[in-house]
Amino acid sequence: HENGVPVERPSFGGEERVAFPEPYGEQEVHLVPHPEPVTLPRYVDAANVVFKVGYTPEETRRIRVLLELGLESDEPFEVDGVAISPRRFAAAYVGRRGIGPSERTANVKQVRVDGVRAGSPVGLVYDFAVEEVGRSASSRITGTVAAIAADRVARGGRAGVHPPEGAFDPREFLGELERRGLHVTERASSR
After folding, report:
1. Omega into 86 within 30° of 0, i.e. cis?
2. What is the tens place of the pLDDT at every residue in 88-115?
3. Max Cα–Cα distance, the chain, nearest Å
4. Considering the entire predicted model, what is its pTM?
5. Residues 101 and 116 sit within 8 Å (Cβ to Cβ)
6. What does the pLDDT look like over 115-136, one tens digit per residue?
7. What is the rounded distance in angstroms from the CA atom of residue 146 to the CA atom of residue 68?
8. What DSSP string runs through 91-132?
9. For residue 135, what is the DSSP state?
10. Strand, coil or helix: 83
11. For residues 141 and 182, is the Cβ–Cβ distance under 8 A?
């Protein structure tokens, strides 16, 4: 979403380096398809919404190879008379690997917000990190967010299918994450 208009950009483009809190430090991040650039402008007055993801250098190298081989395509091809899209094949095959019992995973997020408050420019940065050993840090986040959402709806929240920004008060939601040991920090931005 750029200048108030939805735009489609190539996956893994728009590279930049972002400084995350220690121990993660500076990481390379890339554009990926994700719903926030579509859903956020429906509920928040935001001219620009960009979603990028970073991976370890080894994982970035592997993803680049998959992209170079065309495995992001949805255009089916046939193998022994069975049609399958390269993207579906790659997701199914790579996903089989799983996470080893002593393998460390991390999901580190950063949201940067630039805007105007009381007539003056303001920038805020929200940092969030989850680490797990032997299981997916991303799954912990996804499961916790889904559990909070289900609880909020069960207690009289907005029923139906809505993105979080359209269904919940953000401060209350962050408080629920905090109660479950998932900490989001806020700081002023130097931008």
Report:
1. no
2. 999 888 877 889 999 999 999 999 999 8
3. 65
4. 0.82
5. no
6. 888 999 999 999 999 999 999 9
7. 34
8. HHHHHTT---TT-EEEEEEEEEEEEEETTEEEEEEEEEEEEE
9. S
10. strand
11. yes
